[in-house]
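Notes to self after the Tuesday call (sharing in case useful).
The group wants a holo model before anyone commits to mutagenesis around the pocket. I volunteered. Ligand is xanthosine-5'-monophosphate. Logging inputs and output together so the record is complete.
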Amino acid sequence: MEQASNKKGSCIVLALDFPFEKPENRSNLFAKASSVLDLVSPYICAVKFNHHLILPLGAFDGVKKLVEKAHEHGLMTIMDCKANDIGSTNEVIAEYYYAAGFDALIANPFVGWEEGLKPIFDVARKQQRGVILLVYMSHKAANEGYGQTIINAETGKPMLQYIAFAQKALKLDADGVIVGATYPKIIAEVYDVLRDKLPIYSPGIGAQGGTAKNALEAGSRYLIIGREITSSETPVDTAKKLRDSARPAPQCRRDACF
Ligand code: XMP
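Result:
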């Protein structure tokens, strides 16, 4: 990620999402996704996939071709499956997504370690792939789960759930965390835990109301951007503009701004 980002001068992870299409129009969807990916690839450093394409196109048919195309463009690929099940199922999820070519997947730390996240990390480490953990989601109700005050099992003291998840991500040696761009104050708090040891990925720019400037200044390393680019009449111009505006300002809190 770091290399692709530095080479392209971009911290934008394209969320390759499109609105619902009737299943019989799947070939149009593939063509649209393929075309947007080709057009904007010079301005992004990675591509994130979600159910928007996995469900209609399938992991080993359409999506695998798009993953290969992303790799040909020098882009890493992330599967946003928010893996969130018991360990034996999580293991199968990880095996399939990595077999489809994904470099990393997103998992939900609410399931815990034993018989939860552990099998994902085991598969990932064996195959040298990545695991990115949710720490605070970008939507309105994120506070109901990620923002709760909990009692730390080790100290018996109250603390915020997302701080516990950020600490856990460090301890588990995850490859990054997700904090919504819609919550720059929380990005800053999580950055204080992680410093530059783990990158923060922030979705929620544009359509969800977050801004690149606020997220980067607070400490995000990568910006996940979907509809702003994929629904644009002029995706190339939009991606280029976003790339140019998403350069960390001097007041950015990260130790290693690029
Ligand atoms: P938009 O169109 O809002 O797309 O730019 C954002 C993409 O990111 C996903 N998303 C998230 N993924 N944690 C995640 O792992 C989050 O907090 C989060 N918020 C948005 C969204 O589903 C879409 O693919």
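Two things stood out.
The chain has a mean pLDDT of 95.
The chain is about 45% helix and 15% strand.
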